[in-house]
């Protein structure tokens, strides 16, 4: 995808959704961090169902530490890998209390040192909480980047590096939201809904599915 096409790609997505946001529900930066950690290999919908009651009572790392691992498990047992996630959330909360005065650090390197926090999670927090120009490559962005030709790479990090290089200035903060939503609702894994795609003419994917109900599984 050429430079002018990339600009037009994001311009159209931005026109349709001028203020894109994560679909995870949270009330502060700490809750966002917890929600993103819980969302690994889980849906945002599932995480939101589990955290609504939790976040009504737990708003700080200290409160989470006081809740404890077993108490947290009762809230998140509907989420995949809840045992290990509960352990990580309590551990990272303890570190935030002891090292950062209960605050979430505005630093990606510091974030990735927390238990259960990888580069993708850190990028989401940096972007959503602090407005950083980071690109959190999940399965949707990885697929959209490769399928469309926007940012090709064999690994999430390779796709992230391509996005860092190619995404134009006006769209850098919102880019990962637009790409996630595009992959989640239009450029789907099994069959992309090309017939209603706003950037279909810019996309490098050849076997386009231009009629609803048509097409085979896509890669």
TrEMBL record:
Known SUPFAM superfamilies for this protein?
DNA-glycosylase (SSF48150)
Q: Which Gene3D superfamilies match?
A: Helix-hairpin-Helix base-excision DNA repair enzymes (C-terminal) (1.10.1670.10), Hypothetical protein, domain 2 (1.10.340.30)
What is the name of this protein?
Endonuclease III
Q: Does the keyword Hydrolase apply?
A: yes
What Pfam families does the entry give?
EndIII_4Fe-2S, HHH, HhH-GPD
Q: Tell me which PANTHER family the record gives.
A: A/G-SPECIFIC ADENINE GLYCOSYLASE/ENDONUCLEASE III (PTHR10359), ENDONUCLEASE III (PTHR10359:SF18)
Q: Which GO terms describe its molecular function?
A: endonuclease activity
Q: What is its EC number?
A: 4.2.99.18
Which InterPro entries does this one have?
A: DNA_glycosylase, Endonuclease-III-like_CS2, Endonuclease3_FeS-loop_motif, HhH-GPD_domain, HhH_base_excis_C, HhH_motif, Nth
> Keywords of this protein's UniProt record, alphabetized?
4Fe-4S, DNA damage, DNA repair, DNA-binding, Endonuclease, Glycosidase, Hydrolase, Iron, Iron-sulfur, Lyase, Metal-binding, Nuclease
What the record says about family reads: Belongs to the Nth/MutY family.
Top-rank taxon, per record: Bacteria
What does this gene product do?
DNA repair enzyme that has both DNA N-glycosylase activity and AP-lyase activity. The DNA N-glycosylase activity releases various damaged pyrimidines from DNA by cleaving the N-glycosidic bond, leaving an AP (apurinic/apyrimidinic) site. The AP-lyase activity cleaves the phosphodiester bond 3' to the AP site by a beta-elimination, leaving a 3'-terminal unsaturated sugar and a product with a terminal 5'-phosphate.
Record-listed [4Fe-4S] cluster binding positions: 187, 194, 197, 203
What does it catalyze? 2'-deoxyribonucleotide-(2'-deoxyribose 5'-phosphate)-2'-deoxyribonucleotide-DNA = a 3'-end 2'-deoxyribonucleotide-(2,3-dehydro-2,3-deoxyribose 5'-phosphate)-DNA + a 5'-end 5'-phospho-2'-deoxyribonucleoside-DNA + H(+)
Species the sequence originates in: Novosphingobium beihaiensis
* Cofactor note as given: Binds 1 [4Fe-4S] cluster.
User: Per the database record, which ranges form the HhH-GPD domain?
Assistant: 38-185
The prosthetic group or cofactor this protein requires is: [4Fe-4S] cluster
